[in-house]
User: Fold FlgO domain-containing protein from Gilvimarinus xylanilyticus.
Amino acid sequence: MPRRLLLATALLISSLLTGCGIIECQICGGYDADTSANASAHTSATASAHTTVGTDYPAPVTITATGYGALDPALASNPPQQELMALRASEVEAYRTLAERVRGVEITADTRVADFLTAHDRIFALVDTFVLAKSRVISQGVNRSGYFETTVALSLDTDFYRDPVATMEAEVNNPVSKSQTLSPALPRTASTSAVHFDTGAYASFTDR
Assistant:
């Protein structure tokens, strides 16, 4: 009987010593729950802060795109419609080109806006809707070659670079006046100067 008692006591002592060797328990005085929790929180906060500070986003920028439209000979008998169709064609091409440029905007050295978009049609089409909602026509008319020309512009701020999808969704769901979307330094009316537009055969159109 004493032998069994000694054996059981030895096993108990061995288990306690093994437990203290593996973990720091309260019995050994090497564990402080509050200190450990605070240290973990500090480490997490520090890592998060370094991640935020270490991300360098590009400066806000305004991008532009120009589209062209030609007069359709089949509509020669109806000049007003012919002009309007050519003008519409130039607008469509300008917006399409601007959307492509937005998708190609670099967020970081190895990431572009297109990388944030999935193959889902609704998400991918978000760029097109965003461009239509926030861009502005800054120049429109007929150039010297007789083509109708439309130039559109779009300003991208820092929020766009931080989270492109969220920013575009916010702009689409809560659009602001287009007069607030571009830098005041940009022109806001169509140019009809001889430098940019033909003042001959199509002067009547550009002066309307």
